[in-house]
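If you are new to this repository, start here. Below is one unmodified record pulled from the training split, so you can see the exact layout before writing a loader.
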Amino acid sequence: MNNNSLTDLDQTLDIISAIQEDLNYQQAQASLTAIVEQIDLDTTEKQGLEKEISHLCTMLENLNQGVVQIAAFGLVGRGKSSLLNALLGEQVFTTGPVHGVTQTQQSASWQLNQADGLSTVTISGWGNAQLQLIDTPGIDEVKGQEREQLAIAVAQQVDLILFVIAGDMSQVEFQALSRLRAVGKPMLLVFNKIDQYPATDQQLIYEKIRDERVKELLSPEEIVLVSASPLVTELRENTQGKLERYQYRGEAKVDNLRLKIIDLLQREGKSLVALNTLLCADNLNDKLVQQKMRLRDSQANTILQKAVMVKATAIALNPVTVLDLFSGAVVDVALIISLSKLYGLPMTQTAAIALLQKIGVSMGGITASEFLAGLGLSSLKGLLGLTVPLTGGLALAPYISVALTQASVAGVSTLAIGQVTKTYLANGAAWGETGPRTVVRDILNSLDQNSVMARIKQELQEKLTPERIVSPSP
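And here is the target side for that same chain:
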C-alpha cells in the first residue's frame, strides 16, 4: 500500500470518526431533551428535587450551546484558583494567602483559540464552543464531608477533572483522587508549584507519584507539571548600594496543561461531552423517577385497594355467573386505565384490555384455575340464591359463605393484576429483560394470598347483610 493510499485511508477514518461524534452528540441532545420534556412531577413531587431538575435543564442548555465543563479539585492551598486564573490569563477566581478562600463552586467562561490566544476555542468540527472552568473548595476544609459531597456532585456533571497537588501526594489526597476517579470522568493530575522545588527534586517527586502513588489509577500522559503562580526571588541593589532579596510573582507556566486540554478536546470533544452528559442525566433522572415512583406507589395502592373491594363486593352481591365475569373484567380494565393515568402513561380502553389479556396469559394456570373455581362458585351461588325464597332464608348462610369465598378469590386476582400493572408502568410501560411471565411470577410469589383473602372476607362480611343480597326474580 503506497503513501497516497494510507493518506486516503486516514482521511476516510477521520471523516467516519467525525460523523460518529456528530451522531453521538445529537443522540445525547435528543435523549436529554426527552428527559426534560417528560418531567411530569407535580408541586409535591418536585419538593427536594429542585437542584436535580435545575441541573438537568442546565445540562441541556450547555449541550445546546456547546459548553465543555472542566473542574479543578484538590486540598486546601494547592493553588487550584491560581491555576484556573493562569489558564484564563486573568484574575477571575478569588485567591489569597488564607487557606479556603473558595467557599462555593465558582465558574467562568474560558475563551481560547488554538493559537494559544485569548478569544474563542474551536473544537474540531464543532464550530465555536465555550470552555467553562469550575473552581471547587478544598476537599479537606472544615465541613469536609459536605465539601466532599459537593466535589463528587460536581465531578459527576463536568466533562474533565483537574486534580491539583503541590508535591508528593498525601494519603488524604490519594483517597480523594480515588473517589473522584471512580466517577469515571477523564482526569489530569496537575503537579502545581514546581517552582518551589529544585529540578532534581521535581523529577524525583514526579517519578514517585507516577510509579507508586497513582500507577494503578493514571497513565504518565495524564500527569502534568505546572507552576501557576511562581514566586521569583532576585537580588537587587537598594538605595544604599547593598544587595537585598526581592520576591515577586512571575509568569505562569501552564502552556503544557493548556495544550493537553486542547488536544484532548480536539480528539474526543463531542463524544466526551455526549457520554458524560448522558451518564449524569441518567443518574439525575433515576432520582426523579425514584421520587415519582415512591409517591405514586402510595397513590396507586389506594386505587388498587379500592378496586379490589369494588370487584369483590360486586361479585359477592351478583348471583349470575355471566355478570360475575363481566363485572370483574370491567373493574380490572378500569383499574388499569386509572393506574396508567397516574403514572403518566394513559391508555385507551383497547390498550388496557390488551394489557389485561397479556397479564392473564402470563398468569397461566393460576388464571385458569381461578376461572374454573369462580365458575363453579358462581353456579353454586346462583343456585343457592334461587332457593333462598323457597327455603325461607335457610339457604342464605351457605349463599353468603360461597359469595365471600368467590369474592375473595376475585379480589386476590385484581390485587395481582394491579401489582403487575404497577410494575409494568413504573418500568416505563415495559416488562424489562426478564419478560412478563417472570414479573407476574415474582409478584404472585410475593403475595400472601391467605392474608389478603381473609381481609377481603372480613370487610365483605361487614357489608353483606340479608337486605343487600340480590336474589334472581322468581
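Two things worth knowing about this chain: Residues 287-468 form one domain. The beta strands are 67-74, 106-110, 121-122, 128-135, 160-165, 187-191, 223-225, 231-237, 243-249.
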